[in-house]
Amino acid sequence: MYKTENGAILEPGEWEHQSQIEELRRRNEEVLHRTGMPPLAYVHTFGCQQNVSDSEKIKGLLRLMGYAFTDDTAQADFILFNTCAVRENAESRVFGNVGELKKLKRENPQLIIALCGCMMQQERIVQKIKKSYPYVDIVFGTQAIQTLPGLMLQVLDTHRRVYDTRMHAGQIVENLPVWRQGGVKAWVPIMYGCDNFCTYCIVPYVRGREVSRQPQAILQEIQGLVEQGYREITLLGQNVNSYGKGLTPAIDFPGLLQLIDELPGDFWVRFMTSHPKDCTPRLIDTIANSKKLCRHLHLPVQCGSNRVLRDMNRRYTREEYLSLVGYARKAMPDLALTSDIIVGFPGESYEEFLETLDLIKQVQYDSLYTFIYSPRPSTKAAQMPDPVDAKEKSRWFRELLELQDAIGYERYRAFEGTTQTVLLDGESAAKPGILTGRTQQNLLVEVPAPAQLVGSFVPVKLQKAVKWALQGVLAQEKEG
Ligand code: SAH
Ligand code: SF4
Ligand code: F3S
């Protein structure tokens, strides 16, 4: 067991790579004794929370190997980018960043450069790195995090480039050390991969098939986090609603949520992402009847036209989605709803896009994550005719943003004058003396309060909605 300076406890667990970690640690301790400085690692994460969570494991491994962290690539002895492949601009950003490392490697040939994550699970990307980025030393995929110590040793000892992008169907490596920052909010993956193959999406190809963690492992991890003082746990999965597939004894997502809700301690639980095709009234009832589950559902609809939904292979209709939303609103009038929207899916017409706007008006989302469709090689949608030009799609996109801007602001304003429980999560970077926090609905709150209250649940009287926050003052107690 190894206690870190931010209080996190790292336990390497029992797995085959432990001796490699020990060896790297021995070498890095020698550096520390010789120079008075531990070797420094720079880790940058692109993409979604799944990647953030993976990077926390990578950082856990790096800490055990004796690295400290830096935010400055120029100071680093080891540089790692954890990459995202979901849209084309995510990929180009990574290549831009990697290009900039060439100079650093020339100045410091000892520097080790590694790339990992979703992009590395695509053959064309690995080929491009092999050919055009010779200074990248290590490439590993989404299912090879635990092999990092071995890969590092190989590079150090052979000075050859190494690759591990193997997929291991059905395998979950438990007990990897996790290096979390912040101490208030923690990500906990409950499942990996995706079986849905929405026609636009690369994720099932780069993350492999769905596999769920054992409920005991999840409960133990959450219990440990709560004991360390974490106050908000976000459960992660590409489609948390299909949690439990293949586990014995049988358990489903509402069942898991009930077990988590019964754990002792003062904490909130969120989860993402919920696929509407698997979101049931039982799940909604579970949230409504729980003590710890936040009144917030991220339920990505993607678009409002049945024709487009069918071509996207989303497997629900607009009517089914709206009826689910109706059920949820009835069960929890204070529920916040958020969604992802794709504009300009191949073949989408302006009239079909207007159906999306109409659905958004009906649902009244608190906020939206909005994307212009980006063709991903090897997906079905990339083969579909896509006649609408980029300029036109941008025009639709702006129309969407304008609509949501107005709706979102009204949603914030509806909370003016109410008192809500807020989890204070940090100090405002721009405004001294102001703490930031979130309501159960995940609305951002700013409140003047002493810094020692970070990590507490406090009642806040919300006075004024500004864009995009609610300003308030500490209240004595929550009203109703
Ligand atoms: N599993 C989650 C989403 C993961 S990807 C779900 O099913 O909701 C996050 C979001 O990126 C998706 O919801 C979608 O809105 C967007 N996205 C995925 N592929 C995309 C593409 N090719 N172009 C544009 N947006 C895309
Ligand atoms: Fe992609 Fe669909 Fe899977 Fe989400 S559910 S990760 S959008 S394939
Ligand atoms: Fe990107 Fe991979 Fe997440 S493709 S969105 S980092 S699962």
What is the secondary structure topology, with strand pairs?
Blueprint: E1 2-3, E2 9-10, H1 18-35, E3 40-45, H2 49-64, E4 68-69, E5 78-83, H3 88-99, H4 101-107, E6 112-117, H5 123-132, E7 138-140, H6 148-158, E8 162-164, E9 185-189, E10 191-192, H7 203-207, E11 211-212, H8 215-227, E12 232-236, H9 253-261, E13 268-272, H10 281-288, E14 296-298, H11 306-311, H12 318-331, E15 336-343, H13 350-363, E16 367-372, H14 390-413, E17 419-427, E18 434-439, E19 444-448, E20 457-466, E21 469-474
Helix pairs in contact: 1-6, 9-10, 10-12, 13-14
S-adenosyl-L-homocysteine binds next to strand 15.
Write a brief structural summary.
The protein has helices at 18-35, 49-64, 88-99, 101-107, 123-132, 148-158, 203-207, 215-227, 253-261, 281-288, 306-311, 318-331, 350-363, 390-413, and strands at residues 2-3, 9-10, 40-45, 68-69, 78-83, 112-117, 138-140, 162-164, 185-189, 191-192, 211-212, 232-236, 268-272, 296-298, 336-343, 367-372, 419-427, 434-439, 444-448, 457-466, 469-474. With 480 residues, the protein is of the alpha/beta class. It has four domains: 2-164, Rossmann fold (3-Layer(aba) Sandwich), CATH 3.40.50; 182-279, Transcription Regulator spoIIAA (2-Layer Sandwich); 295-414, Transcription Regulator spoIIAA, CATH 3.30.750.200; 419-474, Beta Barrel (OB fold (Dihydrolipoamide Acetyltransferase, E2P)), CATH 2.40.50.
